Hints:
Elements: E1 8-11, E2 14-17, H1 18-23, H2 28-47, H3 51-71, H4 76-96, H5 99-119
Antiparallel strand pairs: 1-2
Amino acid sequence: MESESSPIAHTKHGDLTLDQIAETLPGMSRLMVEVSDRYWILYYAAKAGKWDLARHEFSELRKTMRLAALVRPKYQEPLDQFDAEYMKPLEQAIRAKDWPAFDDAYQKGIDGTNENHRTLGYSYIEWQLPDTPPPHLRLAE
C-alpha cells in the first residue's frame, strides 16, 4: 500500500516512492533459492577440500539468511534457531577443515531444514543434496 507521504527517490529512470522500493525486496521464495544453491555448493567445496570456497559460501549463505530474517521478520526466530543449532557447528568444522565433522553437521542441517519446513507449514518442500557437484564451478584439482 502506497502512502502519499512516502519519501521519493529520484533515479535516472524515474521517481520511486519508498513504498515502491520496499515492494522490490525479495521474498522467502527468492531468497531460499540462493540459500539452497549456496548450501549445495558448500557441501561439494568442503568435500573437495576447497575450504576457502566453503568458507566463502558459508559466509554468503549466512548473509542471505540474515537478509531473510530482516525482510521477513516472521521467520526471524526459526532462522536464528537454525543458525545457532546447525550453522555454528558447520562454521566450526569449516574453520577446523574437518571433513567428518562437517559432513555430520551438514546432514543434521538438512534434517533441520526439512523439519523447519514442516513446522512452518511447508511440508511439501523437502530439501535434498543433489547427487552431483554444481557443474558451473571447478572443484577438482
